[in-house]
Amino acid sequence: MDRIVIRGGKPLWGRIPISGAKNAALTLLPCALLTDEPLTLRNLPRLADVDSFGHLLNQLGVSTTVEGARPDEFGRVMTLRASKLTSTVAPYDIVRKMRASILVLGPLVARAGQATVSLPGGCAIGMRPVDLHLKALEALGAELEIAAGYVKAVAPKGRLQGGTIRFPFVSVGATENALMAATLARGTTVIENAAREPEITDLAKCLIAMGARIEGLRTDTLTVEGVERLHGATYAVMPDRIEAGSYACAAGITGGSLELVGARKETMPSILSGLEDAGLLVEDTPDGVRVSADGALKPLSLSTAPYPAFPTDMQAQFMAMLTRADGTSLLTETIFENRYMHVPELNRMGADIEVRGRSAVVRGVDRLVGAPVMATDLRASMSLVLAGLAAEGETEVHRVYHLDRGYERLEEKLQAVGADIERAGGD
Ligand code: UD1
Fold first, then answer.
1. Are 392 and 369 spatial neighbours (Cβ–Cβ below 8 Å)?
2. Range from 40-44, 128-132, 167-171 carrying the lowest mean pLDDT
3. How far is the CA of 92 from the CAs of 28, 30, 95, 96, 396, in angstroms?
4. Distance in angstroms (rounded) separating the CA atoms of residues 270 and 266
5. What is the dihedral of CA 374, 378, 381, 386, to 10 degrees?
6. Atom 35 of ligand 1 has which residue's CA nearest to it?
7. Nearest CA to 8 among 369, 315, 390, 401?
8. Ligand 1 pocket: which residues have CB below 6 Å?
């Protein structure tokens, strides 16, 4: 298995192009199930998860064609067409590997009147149940049956019925499933306490381009007027705010300056204010945002929470950066119960981090030292790459497949701004 080898200590300077957002792509792809006409998605990131989602859709009868896949280009264009669905089953084998597969549930029931989807089970960062996804479909009239690790959802008389969905707490995925399902339901659906992540707005905009009637974008109440059918559309995936934030932390931890080309400032308010609070300079540029070191890093107190608050998907990268701050930081994780697996690895590189329940106390250190490290999820892996970029000596990050799930051409992008980083074979 591949590993990433980094010889750290070089400040990074230059421009990094920001790819299409993984989490937006993973909810835009299943929109293809909602219509028999072609859906063309532009600016799709080249990521293992996007490929896996494409394969899942192929199994359901969706044809996919890819253009713009020239090796010198970032992103690509995919046209998906579900003229006729050939299956409504999302099997265990795929769902197990990619939790976002649950996002076919809503669109399948909405279009085909039924779906059978494997339950995802636990994952490295916590239990992550799907009860809210199922309750949302029930509120739209679906009848559910759970057996042998699968949920079967059936819409009586073949069509979902609009209704009120009130989420007890915010869930990105459940909001996405509910929104997609409601577009083809009979009558009006109101989704209360909806997630407000920019990826939800991206999804709503794509659905509107396909003919859906949705109001309340960017708010926590979405109102959907169901339509008889949706049509094809062309839609460009939003830039990845988490990728942009991760590279901003690379500028911070190495004492450099990076322009995040294509980054959309308005989608990352708490990430940018966190960077500023850590003492970094954040400037608008004609093409995006520039983040630059400006003296010593300052310690922070941060708590993860649903958008627009600080994202859980940036917690590990900020933690890596704050290991070099001038003082003690306190990070609190409120979304996932087991999202500190990078802590022991960062400590092996010389960091001083102590986990106390849901919080982590990060005492800034003068130096990090390269080491072989291994992570168990995507953002944790990125925190190790960041630490490696600042550490003395060589860092080897194992289990690169986690990074390939969410960072398009990581080594190429970092090499281009001066990092000594390469991919090597063998684990
Ligand atoms: C999405 C993102 C992920 C991000 C997360 C939170 C994708 C593909 N993934 O994940 O990168 O970290 O949002 O911003 O977009 N929960 C339940 N029952 C449910 C659903 C969720 O209890 O039915 C819990 C989860 O375990 C978690 C919390 O709700 O504790 C929030 O999870 P959710 O917002 O649903 O995350 P995902 O959509 O899985």
1. yes
2. 128-132
3. 22, 17, 5, 6, 32
4. 10
5. 180
6. 171
7. 390
8. 23, 26, 100, 126-133, 171-174, 311-313, 335-336
- Please name the residue that has the structure tokens 């890819």: 66
Is this prediction's pTM over 0.85?
yes
**Distance spanning both ends of the chain, measured CA to CA:** 5
> 3-class DSSP state for residue 326?
coil
Which two structure tokens, joined as six digits, stand for 139?
């509120």
For residue range 302-329, list pLDDT tens digits in order. 999 999 999 999 999 999 999 999 999 9
Q: Which residues pair with 285 in a beta bridge?
A: 288
Peptide bond into 311 cis (omega under 30): no
Nearest CA to ligand 1 atom 1: 172
Mean pLDDT for 192-201 is: 98
**pLDDT of the residue at 375:** 80
Residues contacting residue 358 through CB under 8 Å, at least 6 positions apart: 332, 333, 334, 337
Dump pLDDT digits (tens) for 37-63: 999 999 999 998 999 999 999 999 999
Nearest ligand 1 atom to alpha carbon 49: 8
